[in-house]
Amino acid sequence: MLQSRMGRAVSLGLLLTLLLPATALAQDAPTVEAVKGELDTTWIMVATCLVFFMQAGFALLEIGFSRGKNAGMGIAKIVVNFSIASLIWWAVGYGFAFGGDGTLLGDSGFFLGNGTELAGEAVDGHGIGFFAFQLMFLGVSLAIVWGSTLERIKFGAYVIYAVVFGALIYPLIAHMAWGGGILSRVGSGVQDFAGSSVVHLTGATGALAAVLLLGPRKGKYGPDGRPRAIPGHSMPLFGLGVLILWLGWFGFNGGSTFGTTDGTFGEVIAVTNMGAIGGVLGAALLIWLKTRKLDVGMVGNGAIAGLVAITAPAGFVELWAAPIIGFIGGLVVVAGVIAIDRKLDDPVGALSAHGLAGIWGTLACGLFTSDRLAAVGRPGLFYGGGLEQLGVQALAVVVTFLTVFILSLIAFAFIRATIGLRVSPEEEDAGLDISEHGMYGYPEQFIPAPELIGVGSTRPGASARAGAAVANPSEVPA
Question: To 5 degrees, how large is the angle CA 253–CA 258–CA 264?
Answer without folding.
Answer: 70
